[in-house]
């Protein structure tokens, strides 16, 4: 897993401070090109407008207490839940204070990042609690991706946990034409916690070394330990000759912990996030287009994509389990409407093999869609396409009745 961050402190008029997170696997080419690169410029810049999420309604019949995967969560603030679960020792290292100062000097930006995490934080924290892990781990996606499920590092790491393709394979995440499990909120969270637990055990119960290995790779941390040991030096995280990027990575998480523990002291106002499930995992009973699911739930396509970022074609995959994350507030409506949906209306797209002479413009015109939509669905950086490659093409009523207009090769959905 390799992730590169460039940290600029424009408000402080400082030179660029590079924070490069080189995780333990080398980059490969199995990544989607159109994903957003994450830098600390992005983390400290004003957040882009986000799709409007439907928060669970609090009423007499639906109080703010929530059912976790393990049982009932008390009606307390989610930040208090985090504080209760904090388990890392207090650290007064200068590098920690430097990151605290950065957060302190950019209060609005960290507030926006935490707000962006609302759809995911309750689930992540619940999984952390069920495993008896330190609650600090639930904040790791802030450091890794700013809670952006579409985040992509220059080296090819992806998702809120920033898995590299090779690391994702190691932890059993699916990666194919239909699905990138590194972006799947549920699968990637469980895989990340599995992997962190594995590293924790490998480094004899030292969470700081485990986090250093998550960032730099266990082999690199082991080499640093052996080097220090051979020279009679301490082998704790703070004493190891680790890359500069890793020496900043762990202190940044500890600094964020300090901010959450006492936000008032650091000029930070934590956003009000519901201490309740944001989404439900719903079985769809077969392939389903996200466009159709959005209509059934009454939510936007953008919202469903943010909850299901692992569906790289915006369609659930064939010949496998079919589940979607649906906003909890829309679950009942979705289930009822899905039960009434005719089978032939589940998909609003086809797989189209590009022919010699095709352009995105002509394909968009013939299928009554737009070039922008084709680029979005297929994660294309530009309008350039190549004969023989596959595209997901939204189909209109006209296309449903006459595939000849596109001269499409309707391929089996198995490839």
Explain what you see.
By secondary structure, the chain is mainly α. The chain has 3 domains: 3-266, Lysozyme; 279-345, no CATH class; 349-405, Membrane-bound Lytic Murein Transglycosylase D, Chain A (Roll), CATH 3.10.350.10. It has 17 helices and 10 strands. The protein has helices spanning 40-44, 78-85, 94-105, 107-116, 118-130, 140-145, 165-170, 185-202, 207-216, 218-230, 244-261, 290-297, 301-307, 331-339, 360-366, 371-378, 397-401, and strands at residues 3-7, 17-21, 36-37, 66-67, 72-73, 151-152, 279-283, 323-327, 349-353, 390-394. Strands 1-2 form a two-stranded antiparallel ribbon. A two-stranded parallel sheet has the order 3-6. The protein has a two-stranded antiparallel sheet with strand order 4-5. The longest helix has 18 residues, at 185-202.
User: Which CATH architecture of the largest domain would you pick?
Assistant: Orthogonal Bundle
Instruction: Give the tally of structural domains.
Output: 3
Low-confidence stretches: 2-72, 397-415
Percent helix: 25-40%
Tell me how many strands there are.
10
Whole-angstrom Rg = 23 Å
Strand order of the largest sheet: 1-2
**Which whole number gives the mean pLDDT?**
80
Question: SSE string, helix = H, strand = E?
Answer: EEEHEEHHHHHEHHHHHEHHEHEHHEH
The first-level CATH class name of the largest domain: Mainly Alpha
Percent of residues in beta strands?
A: 5-15%
Instruction: Tell me the number of helical segments per DSSP (H or I, 4 or more residues long).
Output: 17
Largest β-sheet summary:
2 strands, antiparallel
Q: Termini, distance in Å?
A: 27 Å
- Tell the overall outline: globular
Query: What is the CATH topology assignment of the largest domain?
Result: Lysozyme
Q: Return the structural class.
A: mainly alpha
